């Protein structure tokens, strides 16, 4: 930052000047600033040249301020005090953080992410807002700054400019209406579902996750016919399964909850998994917090999450 009306003078030059004035010698000032003495001497000479006044008398026992130097030091101290006040005021203003949420992120997980972010940023206050955004769209919005963070289903075509950290890793189970003929079973194999349609979301929302999951099902004996569904509410999701003996869905247990109309059954062998990741720009200020926040979230997940 250049100081007004003093071309070539930056805040660091004024900090060097104030440190020399307070230390009394170039040697001590250089030690405090952790820079070389010759470099610091040149910086002070350059500042005097730009200001147009001699700021120090060089004595055998140190550096003594001239009258011009004392005047400048008073002004520098006032300026730095104003900056300190402004920075303190900024830090009391909540920092806006917009978090994109892929469809179906469990409410409990959202709360844990919020708690972990608030704890990681203390004492700075946050103003968190969560917005529904498909996993596929989140990387572009992170790059433009419309989102601060994202909670998405990997894999995504994120490129090297994004960083992700897993916050949830759960096995998918079979969701059926309670009156479904298979609902009385305690567990299911994928081959038990050969005649079942699969209630499925629009793949454009999370194409990487969709492709990965369907490939896993095929590799373990089930190539389901998909029943497209664009339901965004749990109520409509449950209604779509009502009265159907040929329709099932795949969800983690936490996404189904305690709905009495639905039954969740574990898949006996090699269930597909749903991972959720927190995403941020790799070179942005939030990237360095991802690992700590993700660890805090995962450490508080319930024991039935099925994490490895």
How far the N terminus sits from the C terminus, by CA atoms, comes to 50 Å
How much strand? 15-25%
Overall pLDDT level: 89
Q: How many strands?
A: 12
The major sheet is characterized as: 5 strands, mixed
Major sheet: arrangement of strands: 4-3-5-12-6
The Cα radius of gyration reads 30 Å
Considering DSSP H and I runs of 4 or more, what fraction of the residues is helical? 25-40%
Structural class: alpha/beta
Number of helices: 10
What characteristic shape results from the CA principal axes?
rod-shaped
Series of secondary-structure elements, N-terminal to C-terminal: HHHEEHEHEHEEEEHEHEHEEH
* Low-pLDDT stretches: 302-308
Any chance you could write out the topology, listing elements then pairs?
Blueprint: H1 11-23, H2 26-33, H3 37-51, E1 56-59, E2 62-65, H4 67-91, E3 95-101, H5 107-121, E4 126-132, H6 138-144, E5 149-152, E6 162-171, E7 173-177, E8 197-200, H7 207-219, E9 225-228, H8 234-241, E10 247-251, H9 253-256, E11 262-265, E12 273-281, H10 290-299
Parallel strand pairs: 3-4, 3-5, 8-9, 8-10
Antiparallel strand pairs: 1-2, 5-12, 6-12, 7-10, 7-11
Helix pairs in contact: 1-2, 1-3, 1-4, 5-10
Keywords:
308 residues; alpha/beta; five-stranded mixed sheet; 10 helices; 38% helix; rod-shaped
Protein described:
- Helix 5 (107-121) links the parallel strand 3 and strand 4 (126-132).
- The protein has ten helices and twelve strands.
- Helix 1 (11-23) crosses helix 2 and helix 1 crosses helix 3.
- It is rod-shaped.
- By secondary structure, the chain is of the alpha/beta class.
- The strands form three sheets. The protein has a five-stranded mixed sheet with strand order 4-3-5-12-6, sandwiched between helices. It has a five-stranded mixed sheet with strand order 9-8-10-7-11. It has a two-stranded antiparallel ribbon with strand order 1-2.
- It starts with 10 loop residues before the first helix and ends in a 9-residue tail after the last helix.
